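Example record for the data management plan.
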Amino acid sequence: MATDTIIWDLGGVLVDWSPLYVYDDTYFSDLADRDYFFGHICTSDWNERQDAGYSLQLATEEKLREFPDPRWRQPILDFYGRWTDMLRGPLPATVSLFDQLRSQGRYRFYALTNWSAENFPIALQRFDFLQWFNGRLVSGEEGTRKPFPEFYQLLFDRYKIDPARALFIDDNLRNIKAAEALGLAGVHFTSAEALREELISQRLL
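Corresponding structural encoding:
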């Protein structure tokens, strides 16, 4: 069955975002402190709760109460306070692939992203290519996120997508496996070069 729809993750695929652009030696006296901060304080699981719609301010206040040691105060405040500094820019090689696919006129394009509704408007203002999509689902706006099946199903239902005719690109293997369980073929993104080869091998590019 021919592919007519391509679904993109954003962060790590089309958009370069990383807390490491903020958290350098000015925050942590050694690597062990930084590892502890990301492993026990501002963890990826904690951030994903906000991606699913929880208030950034409440999450920050709760984390400050949970970790009252003064050495953690500024790093906690800056996780969302300096979030725009973590948003480095587009990933040009992948955006170029997107543009090449778009120029063929053969596909519909959708974004399926775990992203706080409070921060997503910043990306919309910065990156013109986010207007190329036929539609998008932002987890923080919907109150759910990847890898939960209802988030994928909401995309299918809202935009009348047949998962058997779609391809999903994401840098998180967990999210790819969740998509495949719903009959949506996935490509685990590791680099623009590898993605190009995969698209060519599937005769999509």
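Summary line stored alongside the record: The chain has a mean pLDDT of 96.
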